[in-house]
From TrEMBL:
Enzyme class, first EC level, given as a word: lyase
Keywords: Lyase, NADP
Organism in which the protein naturally occurs: Actinomadura macrotermitis
NAD(P)-binding domain residues: 30-344
GO molecular function: GDP-mannose 4,6-dehydratase activity; NADP+ binding
Gene field: gmd
Catalytically driven reaction(s): GDP-alpha-D-mannose = GDP-4-dehydro-alpha-D-rhamnose + H2O
Family: Belongs to the NAD(P)-dependent epimerase/dehydratase family. GDP-mannose 4,6-dehydratase subfamily.
Protein name as catalogued: GDP-mannose 4,6-dehydratase
């Protein structure tokens, strides 16, 4: 496809005069955290829409890249690390993206107590480094604001920023009270994104996303731990599943739906932050009950409470008020909690049933 008048292919050369949001064929996205759950869905959806998709990948031999290549072949890779400012500048210079999605993070909440400083560096300061890379490469300064065709930036903010909430459901105006080093780091990332928008006029937005899950979810998170656990027990590979706090309540949705919301936020006229969730809550106990029943099991015969999985400070209840996203983005979740858990249980039963030596690899998050 050529642009009228200038005759250049938009995917090879930037053509700012003829760029438009309605023309996804001309757009290029850079995703940090592309080897994670959300990165995979986002990359797939952007490729389907004709984007050129680049993933920032850390390490000299990142084992997750093979999985990514196997499932999503058309992604292009550039190396970089959210801990390394120079590598992010090089990546932005090389890719010349129209959109940057910053999904990279230490995202497992318990890990953030074990490695609090690293979590602050990756999950918090990493956001600042990515914003700085965009600012420097775009030549933006207090005296030189970005032009109309600036790089659009999405930050993966989290409902964990709400933490200990006194009002429910939570919306874009609910005060933050994070309860973990992860939540504190995300809150820094959220505010620095807002600050770059206000200081430099950058198109920088945060999606405050509530828990979202899928068959690609890491095995350390409670939904996947439960669906893998139920599948293992069903197939005779285990007899028990050890869990922490069954009373915690969450607003769980499907990751594919949430990846679509990220794109919608970058398609708006004005940069704004949005809460994304279903507005419905279930407890961990409800999750366990539904998953085990789906697998034809009684959870009370198998689940063992184990203090090793309780947290120094818990987030008891999170429930989204996604009214703004519904009204301004036209976003609605498509997959219910019941459909989500059924999808995950069936996927894990297939995964473990198909595996030649399932006992060697049941909890590997490398299985998509
Ligand atoms: P995952 O844990 O599945 O993926 C995290 C990604 O971050 C991986 O690709 C990992 O890459 C990458 N990463 C880790 N450290 C670095 C680093 N130093 N430099 C660059 N990349 C790094 O997370 P999800 O896909 O579930 O979540 C995506 C984002 O959304 C995260 O920021 C998370 O905190 C946030 N979020 C998630 C929610 C959810 O319910 N899933 C809800 C709200 C927010 P590697 O292959 O190198 O390990
Ligand atoms: P969360 O997700 O901390 O909300 O963060 P997780 O699935 O880890 O925990 C949800 C709730 O389940 C309780 N729980 C257990 N959790 C785990 N992981 N393992 C257990 O054995 C267990 N037993 C009970 C937890 O105490 C908690 O209350 C996720 C991550 O994706 C973050 O990156 C993201 O920002 C938030 O969701 C929104």
């Amino acid at each position: 496809m050529f642009h009228t008048g200038c005759g250049i292919r938009p995917r090879q050369v930037r053509c700012p005069t003829h760029f438009s949001q309605e023309d996804p064929l001309s757009r290029r996205a850079l995703i940090t955290g592309i080897t994670g759950q959300d990165g995979s869905y986002l990359a797939e959806q952007l490729l389907e829409r004709g984007y050129e998709v680049w993933g920032l990948v850390r390490g000299q031999a990142n084992p997750h890249v093979a999985r990514l290549r196997k499932h999503i072949g058309d992604v292009q890779i550039t190396t970089g690390d959210l801990l390394d400012q120079g590598s992010l500048i090089s990546a932005v210079e090389r890719v010349q993206p129209d959109e940057v999605y910053n999904l990279g993070a230490i995202s497992y909440v318990p890990m953030s107590w074990q490695q609090a400083e690293l979590t602050a560096e990756v999950t918090g300061m990493g956001v600042l480094r990515m914003l700085e890379a965009i600012r420097v490469v775009s030549g933006i300064s207090p005296s030189r604001t970005p032009g109309r065709e600036q790089i659009r930036f999405y930050q993966a903010s989290s409902s964990e920023m709400f933490g200990m909430v006194r009002e429910t459901p939570q919306n874009e105006r609910t005060p933050f009270h994070p309860r973990s080093p992860y939540g504190v780091a995300k809150t820094y990332g959220h505010y620095i994104t807002q600050n770059y928008r206000e200081s430099y006029g950058m198109f920088a937005v945060s999606g405050i996303l509530f828990n979202h899950e899928s068959p690609r979810r890491g095995a350390e998170f409670v939904t996947r731990k439960v669906t893998l656990g139920a599948a293992r027990i069903k197939l005779g590979l285990a007899t028990e599943l050890r869990l922490g706090n069954l009373e915690a309540r969450r607003d769980w949705g499907f990751a594919g739906d949430y990846a679509r919301a990220m794109q919608l936020m970058l398609e708006q006229e004005r940069p704004e932050d949005y809460v994304i969730g279903t507005g419905k809550i279930q407890s961990v106990r409800d999750l366990v009950d539904f998953a085990f029943t789906s697998a034809g099991l009684n959870w009370q015969d198998h689940v063992v409470l184990d203090d090793r999985y309780t947290r120094p400070a818990e987030v008891d209840l999170l429930c989204a008020d996604p009214k703004k996203a519904r009204e301004e983005l036209g976003w609605e979740p498509q997959v219910s909690f019941e459909q989500l858990v059924t999808m995950m249980v069936e996927s894990d039963l297939r995964l473990l049933g198909d595996s030649a030596r399932p006992e060697d690899e049941p909890f590997s998050p490398d299985h998509w």
